[in-house]
Specification:
The protein is an alpha+beta fold. It is built from 9 helices and 4 strands. The relative contact order is 0.23.
Length: 199
């Protein structure tokens, strides 16, 4: 499928048929998400993959009872990771493992650490959450490219999700993406006219 077709045929699916996506396809999607862009390549996110039906049902009340949660094949909980310094250190290790010399990347690493140290906890969260939405773009378009459907969602209680999923304090649920096979039909795609978007 051409990328333009993926974009035009993707929509926010409101109900899935409950059929499980083949794990190989799920793994392909996770790889597309893993290769998402992020500022400095820090990837300040963690994504909890929920496929257990009982867990999805447990999360349903914290998701306004929306049908996508219990009818999807997999629920992806996109979380911002406030441990920016930890992410920088992980990136440094990955760069060295891939052949970079520690002294050659020191300036880049120091620059990122300085950036992180100048952020308040609130700003760290805000920055990480904005980055997380870049990965969500890959998730929803990637799902359509692989032959299934998705729905990005913000209608949920992050505090309750944290409790139910037993997440550490630095991992903040930010948005959800449900994936599966649609049991509804795509409505007409309504967007603002070009002149109201571009100037």
């Amino acid at each position: 499928m051409e990328f333009k077709d993926i974009v035009m045929k993707r929509y926010a699916t409101k109900k899935f048929d409950g059929k499980k996506i083949d794990q190989k396809k799920v793994d392909e999607l996770l790889e597309l998400i893993r290769n998402s862009a992020s500022s400095f390549n820090i990837e300040p996110w963690k994504i909890k993959v929920v496929s257990d039906q009982k867990m999805k049902e447990q999360l349903s009340p914290a998701s306004m009872g929306q049908a996508q949660i219990t009818t999807c094949s997999h629920l992806l909980v996109f979380c911002a990771d406030k441990d920016i310094i930890g992410k920088i250190k992980a990136l440094e290790s990955a760069m060295i493992k891939n052949g970079a010399k520690k002294d050659e990347i020191k300036g880049y690493i120091d620059m990122m650490i300085n950036f992180a140290n100048n952020l308040t906890d609130e700003k760290k969260l805000s920055w990480a959450q904005r980055q997380t939405y870049l990965a969500i773009g890959n998730a929803i378009n990637g799902a359509k490219s692989l032959g299934f459907d998705s729905c990005p969602m913000e209608g949920f209680n992050p505090v309750e999700y944290s409790k139910i999923l037993k997440l550490p304090s630095n991992i903040i649920p930010t948005a959800l993406v449900t994936i599966g096979y649609a049991a509804d039909t795509m409505p007409p795609k309504v967007r603002l006219p070009k002149g109201e978007v571009f100037f």
